[in-house]
Structure formats: C-alpha cells, structure tokens
Amino acid sequence: MKNEKLKGIKIIIIFFGLLVFNSCSNKEIFTAEMKIDNGKWAYSEPLKGTFEIKDTSQSYDIQLNINHKDDYPFQNIYLRITDDFTGTTVTDTVNINLADEYGVWSGKGISKSRELHSILRKSFKFKSQKKYNFSIEQFSRQDSLNGMRSIELIVLNTKY
Known about the structure:
Layout: H1 2-23, E1 28-35, E2 40-42, E3 47-53, E4 60-69, E5 76-83, E6 90-97, E7 108-110, E8 113-124, E9 130-138, E10 144-146, E11 148-157
Antiparallel strand pairs: 1-11, 2-10, 3-9, 4-8, 4-11, 5-6, 5-9, 7-8
C-alpha cells in the first residue's frame, strides 16, 4: 500500500515537472529592448538590432512591446519601422493605438505603467538563412515623446 502511494506521488511529480518544463520552453529566438531612462523618446534614438535566422522552414511572429507611463499624452504612437525581412530594405509607418476613443489604456498595467504587445508580423517565413536588420523610430510630430519607458522587439518561433 505504501509503495502504491509513493508510486502515485512520483507519477504526479513527474507529470507536473513535465508540465512546468513544457510551459517554460522558450520560443523567443531574439529580443532587443531599449530602456528610455528619462521618459523621453527622441527621434534621434531608434531601437536597432540584428538577429540571425537559421531555420527557414519555421514560421515566426514578430512582436513589438511598448511600455509607457499612464501620463503619456497621446492615444496612439506612430512608428517608422525599417527592416530587410523580405529580402529588400523596406520602411513603413505604423500607427499603434495605445488607448481606445474614451482614453482607456490597452494592454496590461500596474500602477502608473502600461505595457502593450502588438504583433507586427504573424506566422512570417524568412526566405534565407542569414542575419536580418531592423530599426524602429518614433515618428510623431514632436521631437521627443514624453511618458515612454521602453520599446522591445521580439522574434518568436511559432513552432512552440
């Protein structure tokens, strides 16, 4: 009877161990974050990075995380994103809504900080095994955007 209880406990421990291991598997293949210490993101301070894709048979999500204070003065943010993900260098202007028309912030928040996750490309397939480059600039009518904490670009393998 005691052996059966121990055997049952071992099975439960193994099951939970596998569950935790699988839930912690990291599908991030690249992360670049720019902390904005003074809370002001200037035109002259883009987030730039390079990452390498080794497996072109997989699909990837390209996610942008925006962390801002609740005193950020606008409902949205305009970004100029330059990348060579398609094989040629492309620059695009992207508008990301941070709040709805009533001023309610989107995303998650604790105290005076808000974080929004936005998928820039879903299930994207890179054509070549190589290093890819990107640049993300704030593209507002002001030289500096107040209330910004950080900008982060994450490339996720959708296989997991």
